[in-house]
Amino acid sequence: MPDTQDPVAKNTVQALWKITKVVLDTLDFSEVTQKICDSLLDELGYLNLGYRIIVLSLYDPEKNGLQRISLSQTPEAEAAVSASTIPFHDILIPLSATENICVKAYLDQKPYTSTNWQDILSPPLTPEAARTNQTAAGIKTSMVYPVIVKGKSVGTVILSMVKDYSEVSATEIDLIRGFTEIVGISVQNAKLYSDLEKTKNSLDAANEQLKLLDKVKDEFISVTSHELRAPMTAIKSYTWLVTNDKAGPLEPKAREYLNKVYLSTERLIHLVNEMLDVSRIESGRIQLHPEDFTMEKLAEDVKDEFTAKIAEQNLSLELQFPQELPTVNADREKMHQVLENLVSNAIKFTPPGGKITLTSRVNGNFLETSVIDTGNGIAPEDQQKLFIKFGRLENSLIARTGTGSGLGLFICKQYVELHRGKVWFTSTLGQGSDFTFSLHLS
Amino acid sequence: MDTPPLPPQKILVVEDDQFLRDLYVDILTSAGYEVQQASDGEEGYKLIHQGGYDLVLLDIMLPKIDGISILKLAQATPPEKSNRHIVILSNLGQDSIIAEAVNLGARGYMIKSELTPEQALNEVKRYLSES
User: Fold this and answer.
1) What is the number of CB-based contacts under 8 A between chain A and chain B?
2) What percent of chain A has pLDDT over 90?
3) Contact A230 B91 (CB under 8 A)
4) CATH top-level class for A201-282?
C-alpha cells in the first residue's frame, strides 16, 4: 500500500498529468522522445531519488531489433556515451539476443532488473565494454520496462539508478508504470503525426509537380498548335491556288486528289484549333466578350456556312424561330462555335434525305435553342460519353469514318456552362437526336 | 485630258514563315499591288518606321521583335511617313492579344489559317477601300 507521507505518492497523479501534458503538447517525433527521457528526471524530480539515465528504445521491424532512440541529458548519460565503443544511436539489440533483459522485457511484456550492464548492452557490446560503460556512468541498478501500445510491445525504457533495487519504493514503481504507458501513447502519437507530415509533404511535392506538368502541357499545346498552323496554312493556301487553276488547268483526277488534300488540311486546322480551345478552357484562360444578339441571326449565319454541305448530302436545314424572340447576352463568337458544332454533328449523323431543324423558345429567364435531326440517334450506352473529352463513341459514324476529335461537344458544354447555361439532349436510336442549350436572356 | 494612271498601292508583308510570306507576296503582286516584305520583327519595324505604306500586314509571333512590340514602338515614335493601316496577320486566334493589338492602333486582324488566298485578298481590298 502506498505511503501517503511519501512526497512522490502525493504527487503521483499530478505528476503523471504534468508529464502527459508535456509529451502530448509536442508533436515532433524527436522532440517528444527527448522530453520523455528528460521529464521523468527533471519535471518529476526522479533525479533526487537516485535516477540518472533514462533511455528509450523502439522496435525497428526492418532491422528486427530494439533501436536506441533517445537518452536523458545528464552527466552520467554523457559519461556512458563517451565510454561506449558504439555511438548511442547505432546501438541495436537484436531480438535474437534472448538473454538481454531489454529483449526479455519487450517479448514478455514485463519489467526486468539488473545490476550488470552486460544484461542490457550485450550484444551488441561485449560484456567487458558493457561493464566499462557502467563503471564510467557510475550506475548501480537498471530497470527495463516494456513500452506497450494497445497490448503490443513497441519498445523499452531503461531506468538506471545510483541506488539498489531494494531502495525503490512502491510509489516509484507506480509512477514508472504510469509513465511507460504515457510513453507508449505519446510515441504512437508522434509517430502518426510525423508519418502524416511526411505523407503531406510528399503529397504537396507531388501536387506542385502536377501543377507544373499541367502548365507545361498547356504551353506545349499552345506553342505546338501555333507552330503547326503556319505550315498547315501554307498547305491549305497553295492547294487552294492549284485547285483554283492559278497554276494552269488541272487534270480531273489531280483535282479530285488535291481537293482531298485541301479538305484534310482544313480538318487538321480545325482539330488543332479545338486542341487549343481545350487547353485554354482547362487553364482558365477563356475570356468572354458578351453582347446582345438574336439567336435567329446567328442561326442564319450558321445555316449559310453549311449550305453547300447540306445540298451535297441531300439534307434540308430549316430554321423555326417564332417572331419577337428576345435577345440573349453572350459571347457571340463562342455561341457561333457551339451552334456550328451542333449543326456539324447533326449533318454528320443524318443520312441523305434527312432533316435538321434549328429552333429557339423562351423558358423563364433563358432562351433554349435546339438542333434537331432525323439521324441515327445515339445508343444508350454511348450517351454518357458524349460530353467527355475525347469521348468518341464505339458505334458511331465518327469511329467508322475516323473524323472528329471527340472534343467538339466537350468544348460546347464548357462554353455554355461558362455562360451559366446548360446543354442537354434526347436521342432515340434510329429516329434522331435533339441537342439543346440554354442561355440567359439579355 | 487623260488622267495619269494611279500609282499602285504599297503593301508591306511582315511574316517570318517563308512559304506564307511568298504566298502573300505572290497573291498581292498578282493583284497589282507594290509589295515589300520583311522576314523578322527588326526588319519589319525598320520598314514600318520609314513608312509610306497603304497597308502593313503584320504577324504577331516574329523573331527579334514581336508584332505587339512593333505596334508599341510605332505608337511611341511616329514613322517618318505615315502608314494608312496596319492589320494583324496572325495564327493566334486569342482574343486578348488581338484586343491588345487593336488598342495599340491595329486596324483589324486576319487569321491566316481561316482564309483561302481569295478571302485574304478580299480582306486586303476591303481594308484598302477604308479611309
Assistant:
1) 48
2) 40
3) yes
4) mainly alpha
- Which of B95, B103, B115 should we substitute to test contact with A (largest number of A Cβ atoms within 10 Å)? B95
> Which residue of A233, A244, A273 is in closest CB contact with B20?
A233
Closest CA to A157 of A119, A204, A106: A106
CA distance B52 to chain A (A): 28
Domain-embedded: residue B38: yes
pLDDT digits (tens, 9 = 90+) for A53-103: 989 888 988 889 998 888 888 888 888 888 888 888 888 899 998 889 999
| Cell numbers that stand for A57 in this block | 528504445
| Domain CATH code at residue B105 | 3.40.50.2300
Q: Please tell me the predicted confidence (pLDDT) of residue B2.
A: 58
Banded model confidence at residue A401, pLDDT cuts 50, 70, 90 = very low
* Contact yes or no for B97/B71 (Cβ under 8 A): no
CA pair distance A396, A382, nearest whole angstrom? 9
Contacts of A75 (CB under 8 A, 6+ apart): none
Q: Give the per-residue pLDDT at A271.
A: 84
Please report residues of B whose CB lies closer than 8 A to that of A280.
Answer: 94
The residue type found at B14 is V
Mean pLDDT calculated for residue range A390-404: 49
Among candidate residues A68, A147, A265, the one with its CA nearest the CA of residue B112: A265
- Residue A357: per-residue pLDDT: 96
Interface of A to B at Cβ within 8 Å reads 226, 229-234, 236-238, 240-241, 244, 246, 269, 273, 276, 280, 287, 289, 333
According to DSSP, the β-strands at A152-161 and A141-149 are: antiparallel
| Within-domain flag for B2 | no
Pairwise CB contact (< 8 Å): B116 & A269 = no
Contacts with A226 from chain B: Cβ below 8 Å: 61, 91-92
Can you tell me the mean pLDDT for A388-417?
68
Express each pLDDT in B72-118 by its tens digit: 999 999 999 999 999 998 876 666 788 889 899 999 999 898 899 99
CB contact under 8 A, B113 and A241: no
User: Is it the case that residue A368 has pLDDT exceeding 50?
Assistant: yes
Cα A137 to Cα A83, A183, A350: the distances in Å are 9, 24, 94
Sign, CA dihedral A10-A13-A18-A22, equals positive
Which residues from chain B sit within 8 angstroms of residue A268, using beta carbons? none
B94, part of any domain: yes
Least confident of A203-207, A221-225, A318-322, A326-330: A221-225
CA A228 to chain B, closest CA, distance in angstroms equals 10
Question: Is B113's CB within 8 Å of A233's CB?
Answer: yes
The nearest CA of chain B is from the CA of A262 a distance in Å of 10
User: In this complex, which of A226, A238, A246 lies closest to B91 when CB atoms are compared?
Assistant: A226
CATH superfamily, domain A290-440, is: Histidine kinase-like ATPase, C-terminal domain (3.30.565.10)
Q: Which CATH class is domain A7-196?
A: alpha beta
Q: Cell numbers 453572350 correspond to what residue?
A: A330
DSSP string spanning B21-39? Answer: HHHHHHHHHHTT-EEEEES
Binary contact (B116, A234; C-beta < 8 A): no
pLDDT of residue A39: 80
